[in-house]
UniProtKB/TrEMBL annotation:
The protein's name in its UniProt record: Restriction endonuclease
Organism (species): Methylobacterium gregans
Length: 123
């Protein structure tokens, strides 16, 4: 029996029953993060801006990538250093409305926005 077969068995105590761990919920999009899904820790204040020992949250990788594709480390530190500020941002809100229609383990490549690409070229 392969790992994939075992994952879906109803009698597996790791995924069913009283010993099954509660699913981790992505605080940004409010969808569960399945055990096999891509995820990462997001420093609420970027490490480069003094957030090494400050709070982190576990996000879907696509949610994490969406943040960094749209904003610089300085802008994240200045005005987007908590989950409620991220959710209130219009660009992230648009992304969240889109990603909430996808399966919990959905992942695709995230492209940097035109504005960020232009800002990088202008440096």
């Amino acid at each position: 029996m392969g790992r994939r077969d075992r994952r879906w068995r109803d009698d597996d105590p790791a995924t069913h029953g009283p010993l099954a761990a509660a699913p981790v919920i992505c605080p940004l999009c409010d969808r569960p993060i399945p055990p096999g899904a891509r995820s990462s820790l997001h420093h609420l204040t970027p490490k480069l801006k003094g957030g090494t020992h400050r709070g982190t949250v576990r996000l879907h990788q696509i949610c994490h990538s969406a943040i960094h594709a749209r904003y610089s480390e300085a802008e994240i530190a200045r005005r987007l250093a908590d989950v409620s500020a991220l959710r209130a941002d219009p660009e992230i809100a648009r992304f969240l409305a889109w990603v909430r229609t996808k399966p919990d383990d959905f992942h695709t490549a995230t492209r940097t926005t035109r504005e960020r690409r232009g800002a990088r070229r202008d440096r």
